[in-house]
């Protein structure tokens, strides 16, 4: 029988036809809707893996594909490891783009959104992502958003939802209010070039600040989160310890009273306070400017400067201006009076909106005092080990804590840290101050003057004021036919059948709240709903949550780092609120968080304007879903940005083709030897393959458990394939049972990352069980170890020693080891080596003279 040509197929087509293979498996998978369903009442350990749900913009982009390919690989890996896996998907489907599309295309937002969901879902299915669609959550449907309303009522009952008039961030492009978290460098998070304006409106707020301390403290528990995300949250919460001190104005100016309470983190410097600085919008400033038109106009100027600085984003860099009010206030520590100024660099929402100015010991105060000729008084001297040196005056401003107090009455001589505690305690005992903690975190403004969001379930009655909608009347349905415009008021104002209602309390005529909720409310708790998505009686059943969330929350959450603040802080708050309601037991929603890098092209973010957008549909059509997925895992470590290369995905497709062709030639499940155990005695070539196989199993498993450097796992599988390709030449020396084992394992290792091809090959090697739940291969340390052999070493034909070398060692290494052996060295000492004969794996003979 002639030697079989490697490149000619015998019974099967050797060409890897991704389209045909993927279509076959796609059809099979679609016919089994429960394929990826999590098991109810399972005795298996649970694993909840979740990718952040997308906004249904109409089409997936490569960033989505990468995010989902990572999560899907992990879900499949966990199934193969015997876990009961929950892997759901849904749609964050309220939000402004639907309204913009409605205006542009004259399509109702709901229609537009549901059509987009349908097409994106189709894309996800085609990409082979293993989602349990029976749990799909669509946040814009009443079956979901009724629970937003229910939670809102619960928060209102507990005083966690409240209404107040306040300065709010307003995006003139979105025509709506933004939360502080949605203002990025002074601009709108959706409109990077649009400065955010400040407006005064009555708004609904959620009291996230009630949990400020706990949100900060529990970051310590989140060891499975990237440190950068924890740092970002820590900074956002911005806890600072300090003291409040009352300065008396010596008489009322107006309704805001006669006391100015300052917040300071350095009460130890209070003897050096030579003025007070108020924020231009501090209530007492309003009183002071009441009858003083000149002062009013100067303050208005400061307000304008401050707004402008806020709009460009950096209040710290503002050119500092101020105006003296003509008033004085008494420093309760010294008893002296200091001038009261208004300054453009003091913000109303930091501390109390009033500070004491200590020019000698603060950069900004120093700059301000120099400009306006205010007194600069030294009250802290640097600490020094040399007592002579301590009297030396420091360069001003001297701002460190590494010093002690001077010119500070009874507190002189005390070091700064001690003085801070003593002086705050003193102020408290005397009744003019106290130690306190402030946070940068503010309450979450959730009112939006938009149509496409959850209606806030509140009504306004002339007689009863604000009245919550009764729970039994939920959901308050968002009306369908609404004329959406971006005019500034809520579009719901123009829908009389929505607007006009009756008061739940007195039955009289009332008006509904027409603002809708911030869409970040929707995503604050959606992942709980997945666990019990069809519950009509409650947002979810607590027992079911206890199973899936355990004590520590979602086992693995995967998404973009752009959600480090907004979504991830709101959802932590929501979890703590639900825990306090007794609905959940876990303190935190997410045990482990992974933030993947972006997908870029030609070094830049993909965008239509740049023309560098890669379409997932096109990639699937050209190379197949497996290649698109595998390339997005292979091209870069998942936490880094991935620079998309067309040649890269082509290379991956060629690799898949190579795998396929190897199986076409070597899958022989009908061979009687196919299922036999691999013999323990193997030729060196066969043993090398066996060893490589186990090393690969270890590498891939380690990476799933560890750092998720799938790029290196995939390289390892490629190397294994190269090794077995090389062995095809010497097939007679490789037992069929080993070739079978290699193939079985390659399928198992590829199954989480390239599921279509893996399923096809699984069938090709005669396996009938469900690959999705086939056991993950076991790594055998003994088989992965290098074998060692003993080789006798002769000198002039006489046995002198034995050396131990790795099996299959090259001649050079054996020669080197033999000559380095102590006994051999003694035997050849002082003689000339004529020749070294190495018979690999057998013998070394050194000929000397
Ligand atoms: Zn905007
Ligand atoms: Zn009423």
Textual characterization of the structure:
This protein has 5 domains: 44-139 and 209-234 and 519-596, HUPs (Rossmann fold, 3-Layer(aba) Sandwich), CATH 3.40.50.620; 147-207 and 443-517, no CATH class; 239-439, Valyl/Leucyl/Isoleucyl-tRNA synthetase, editing domain (Isoleucyl-tRNA Synthetase, domain 2, Alpha-Beta Complex); 616-784, Isoleucyl-tRNA Synthetase, Domain 1, CATH 1.10.730.10; 788-848, Ubiquitin-like (UB roll), CATH 3.10.20.590. It is of the alpha+beta class. α2 packs across α17, α16 (616-623) crosses α17 (625-634) and α20 runs antiparallel to α21. Residues 1-10 have low confidence and may be disordered. The strands form 11 sheets. The chain has a 4-stranded parallel sheet with strand order 2-1-26-27, sandwiched between helices. It has a 4-stranded antiparallel sheet with strand order 6-5-9-19. It has a 4-stranded mixed sheet with strand order 13-14-12-15, with helices on both faces. The relative contact order is 0.11. The two termini are 54 Å apart. The longest helix is centred in the last third of the chain and has 22 residues, at 684-705. The chain is built from 25 helices and 34 strands. One zinc ion is lined by residues 461, 463-464, 467, 503, 505-506, 508. Residues 461, 463-464, 467, 503, 505-506, 508 line the site of one zinc ion (ZN).
């Amino acid at each position: 029988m002639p030697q079989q040509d490697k490149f000619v197929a015998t019974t099967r087509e050797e060409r890897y036809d991704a389209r045909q293979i993927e279509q076959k498996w796609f059809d099979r998978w679609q016919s089994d809707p429960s394929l990826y369903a999590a098991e109810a009442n399972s005795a298996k350990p649970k694993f909840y893996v979740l990718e952040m749900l997308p906004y249904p913009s109409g089409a997936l982009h490569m960033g989505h594909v990468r995010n989902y390919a990572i999560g899907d690989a992990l879900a499949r890996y966990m199934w193969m490891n015997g876990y009961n896996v929950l892997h759901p998907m849904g749609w964050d489907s309220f939000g402004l783009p639907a309204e913009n599309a409605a205006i542009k295309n004259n399509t109702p937002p709901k229609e537009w959104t549901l059509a987009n969901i349908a097409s994106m879902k189709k894309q996800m299915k085609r990409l082979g992502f293993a989602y349990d669609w029976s749990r799909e959550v669509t946040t814009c449907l009443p079956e979901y958003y009724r629970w937003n309303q229910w939670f809102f009522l619960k928060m209102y009952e507990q005083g966690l939802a409240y209404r107040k008039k306040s300065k709010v961030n307003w995006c003139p492009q979105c025509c709506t209010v933004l939360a502080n978290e949605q203002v990025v460098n002074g601009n709108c998070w959706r409109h990077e070039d649009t400065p955010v304006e400040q407006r005064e409106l009555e708004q609904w707020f959620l009291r996230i600040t009630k949990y400020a301390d706990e949100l900060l403290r529990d970051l310590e528990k989140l060891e499975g989160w990237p440190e950068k995300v924890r740092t970002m949250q820590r900074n956002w919460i911005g806890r600072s310890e300090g003291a409040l001190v009352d300065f008396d104005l010596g008489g009322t100016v107006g309704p805001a009273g006669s006391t100015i309470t300052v917040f300071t983190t350095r009460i130890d410097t209070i003897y050096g306070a030579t003025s007070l600085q108020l924020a231009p919008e501090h209530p007492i400033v309003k009183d002071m400017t009441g009858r003083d038109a000149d002062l009013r106009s100067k303050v208005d100027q400061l307000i304008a400067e401050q707004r402008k600085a806020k709009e460009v984003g950096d209040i710290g860099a503002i050119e500092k201006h101020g105006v003296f009010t003509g008033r004085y206030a008494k420093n309760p520590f010294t008893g002296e009076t200091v001038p009261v100024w208004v300054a453009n660099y003091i913000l109303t929402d930091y501390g109390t909106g009033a500070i004491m100015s200590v020019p000698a010991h603060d950069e900004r105060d120093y700059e301000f005092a120099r400009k306006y000729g205010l007194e600069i008084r030294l009250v802290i001297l640097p600490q020094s080990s040399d007592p002579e040196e301590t009297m030396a005056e420091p360069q001003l401003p001297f701002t460190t804590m590494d010093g002690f107090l001077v010119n500070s009455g009874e507190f002189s001589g005390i070091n700064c840290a001690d003085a801070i505690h003593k002086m705050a305690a003193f102020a408290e005992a005397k009744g003019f101050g106290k130690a306190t903690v402030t946070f940068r975190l503010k309450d979450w403004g959730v009112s939006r003057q938009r149509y496409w969001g959850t209606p806030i379930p509140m009504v306004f009655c002339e007689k009863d004021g604000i009245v919550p909608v009764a729970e039994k009347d939920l959901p308050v349905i968002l009306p369908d036919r609404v004329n959406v415009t971006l005019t500034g008021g809520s579009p719901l104002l123009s829908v009389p059948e929505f607007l006009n209602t009756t008061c739940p309390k007195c039955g009289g005529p009332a008006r509904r709240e027409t603002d809708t909720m911030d869409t970040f409310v929707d995503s604050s708790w959606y992942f709980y709903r997945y666990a019990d998505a069809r519950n009509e009686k409650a947002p979810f059943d607590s027992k079911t949550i206890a199973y899936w969330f355990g004590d520590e929350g979602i086992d693995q959450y995967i998404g973009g780092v752009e959600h480090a603040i907004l979504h991830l802080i709101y959802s932590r708050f929501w979890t703590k609120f639900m825990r306090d309601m007794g609905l959940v037991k876990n303190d935190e929603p997410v045990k482990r968080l992974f933030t993947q890098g972006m997908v870029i092209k030609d070094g830049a973010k993909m965008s239509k304007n740049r023309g560098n957008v890669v379409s997932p549909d096109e990639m699937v059509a050209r190379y197949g879903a497996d290649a698109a997925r595998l390339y997005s895992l292979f091209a870069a470590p998942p936490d880094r940005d991935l620079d998309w290369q067309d040649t890269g995905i082509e290379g991956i497709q060629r690799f898949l083709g190579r795998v396929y062709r190897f199986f076409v030639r070597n899958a022989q499940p009908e061979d009687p030897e196919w299922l036999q155990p691999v013999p323990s005695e193997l030729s060196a070539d066969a043993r090398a393959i066996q060893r490589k196989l186990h090393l690969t199993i270890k590498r891939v498993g380690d990476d799933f458990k560890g750092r998720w450097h799938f790029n290196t796992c995939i390289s390892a599988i490629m190397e294994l394939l190269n090794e077995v390709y090389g062995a095809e030449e010497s097939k007679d020396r490789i037992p069929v049972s080993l070739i079978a084992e290699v193939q079985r394992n390659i399928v198992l290792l590829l199954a989480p990352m390239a599921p279509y091809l893996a399923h096809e090959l699984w069938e090709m090697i005669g396996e009938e069980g469900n690959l999705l739940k086939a056991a993950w291969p076991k790594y055998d340390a003994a088989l992965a170890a290098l074998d060692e052999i003993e080789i006798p070493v002769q000198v002039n034909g006489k046995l002198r020693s034995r050396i131990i070398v790795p099996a299959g060692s090259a001649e050079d290494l054996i020669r080197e080891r033999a000559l380095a052996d102590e006994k051999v060295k003694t035997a050849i000492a002082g003689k000339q080596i004529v020749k070294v004969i190495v018979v690999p794996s057998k013998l070394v003979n050194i000929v000397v003279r």
